[in-house]
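Hi L.,

As promised, DUF1294 domain-containing protein:
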Amino acid sequence: MAVALFTLYIAIINIAAFAMFGSDKAAARKNRRRIPEKRLFLVSAAGGSMGALIGMRIWRHKTKHASFTIGIPLLLLLNLALGALFVRSLL
């Protein structure tokens, strides 16, 4: 049961991260209010790094910022390691 809830959480946070990158890109194009970079990183660090990375690639958003091109993949590695440890502890 706990693994299923964890999987659901990871799916939801990644969908949210993906949507946030798309929304921020759309806002940037229209000169509208943007999503703060700290919030994008927070959602990525909270488990949404895969969705963030896919969003960066699909929308070509934040791809010129070293903090994102290096930071998001590093967060993905951290998320994978911590997720594996968490699931392993449940089994």
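The longest helix spans residues 2-29.

Thanks again for sending the construct details.

K.
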